[in-house]
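Mods, move this if it's the wrong board.
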Amino acid sequence: MANQFEWQFDFRNFNKNEMQVQVRPTGCVLTSPHDSHYSAWKHQVPYSPTGGIEGIYRPGNCVVDFGKWWSVIKNGLKLNLDLGILFVVQSPKTDDLIEAISNVFAVDGDVVEACIKNMSKEEIEQMLTTCYKSVDKTCINNLMNPTVIRQMAQDMNLDPKAWGIISGKTYREYIWNRNSPVINNHGWSVFRAWGDKAKHRLLIAEGCFIDKGRLIYPCDDTDHPKHGNTFWNFWSRDFNNY
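Not the wrong board. Structure tokens:
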């Protein structure tokens, strides 16, 4: 439907060697692979900084209602949550806002327009004033370098006119949280191998890009907790939270 998009995980491997990635329903994170409730998608992703079919996971029948995302998007663009959208126009108008959000989340523009029309004039003005800063604000809140993040987006060939980023508490609350209100009251835990110890050492995602309705995860050894970036963090089977 016009107000819905298919949930997809898109992994971009910047390493010359294959890298193992995993996607699990959050409730399965601490279960054994031999448990009947265990469920996970695992794949070896080849070198693919600009994407490829090998790095895409589409959970079965996982369709997201844009309306559930709207409050998260709106508050992110008002700089109240860690969600940002790139705007190439420094002083965007309402039409620019509609086009950018529509492109990032792969929904029809009239769906976005209807959501905006339900906002007060004051809310719209505030969002137009602050949305241009939303990417930088999200990066700074989460110890990311905005210049590096923009370069990563360019290296992955994301839409140069509009892409999104979600990180920190907002990512954990709305994507990782097992009771996420925007993902039909469950969540997703996303992992990548840490070094060459894929079976025993994993990093867990705590942020990603958004482009054309896909959650995009850059997999690069320089994007690592030790180097100060926070798309990924250390994870242990001993802990429910990270």
